[in-house]
Design a protein that fits this description.
Helices cover 17% and strands 27% of the residues. It is an alpha/beta fold.
Length: 172
């Protein structure tokens, strides 16, 4: 029994259960109160929007030219590109943000981003917490981690690592 009052709430999430061949949800075009979003400063709104849409799989939800571009992917994956000075690819990241994917999307995202901005991609690589990650440095200098949960194997090294931290894997 878990004594920290957590419970499974996957029904609230657009992220599919991590199974072999998991299919990503459709891009979400509905209107909702955004529970969280990130602002990414850029000195090239249209160039940044092109990278995020063609490379990272977002779509342009709406744009106010010269003011803001609201990008979205799945439900609750909102990014606002806003005028400002990013660090580009030469300095420290302006920010780091992670977005959920499914494992089957990782190679496509890595390839698309590398084609658009050579040298911008690290991975895909496995993590100790049972995900596959692709790290992308965007043209405006944001560090974007696309992360996909792997199917849970209770006998894996990753499951042991999670248990050592007090995190039990899913049942059944």
């Amino acid at each position: 029994m878990n004594d920290n009052n957590t419970f499974a709430a996957f029904s609230m999430s657009p992220v599919p259960h991590p199974t072999p061949g998991a299919v990503p949800p459709e891009l979400f075009r509905g209107i909702y109160g955004m529970p969280v979003f990130v602002n990414v400063p850029t000195d090239d709104l249209s160039g940044s929007a092109e990278f995020w849409t063609r490379g990272l799989g977002f779509f342009d939800f709406f744009t106010v030219p010269g003011k803001i571009t609201h990008l979205r992917r799945w439900a609750f994956q909102d990014v606002l590109l806003v005028p400002g000075q990013g660090s580009g690819n030469t300095g420290e990241p302006t920010m780091t943000v992670s977005f959920s994917c499914v494992v089957g999307q990782m190679d496509e995202i890595a390839t698309a981003c590398e084609k658009l901005l050579p040298g911008s991609v690290s991975g895909p690589y496995r993590t100790p917490w049972n995900t596959v990650d692709v790290e992308v440095r965007t043209p405006e200098g944001a560090r974007v981690v696309m992360t996909a949960a792997r199917p849970f194997d209770p006998d894996s090294t990753e499951a042991g690592y999670l248990r050592e931290m007090g995190i039990e894997g899913p049942e059944g």
